[in-house]
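User:
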Amino acid sequence: MAANAIIHSGISKEKWMIEVERVAHKLKVNKTGNDGKEWRSHLDQTKKYAESVRGALPEVKSKLERLQDDA
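Assistant: Predicted structure:
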């Protein structure tokens, strides 16, 4: 089959819709109930990680500098 070939279905629209209705309950639909605001939880999590990194930075930096001096 050529790369730019168009595939046509032999199934009618009515038969397709019947099949969709038959299997619709098996399809996973991502409804988290947060109305698209998952970005807020990601932002909050990122802020917590940033605070953790800032808190650990002085100790980690001094340890890395010592390792560099020993090398």
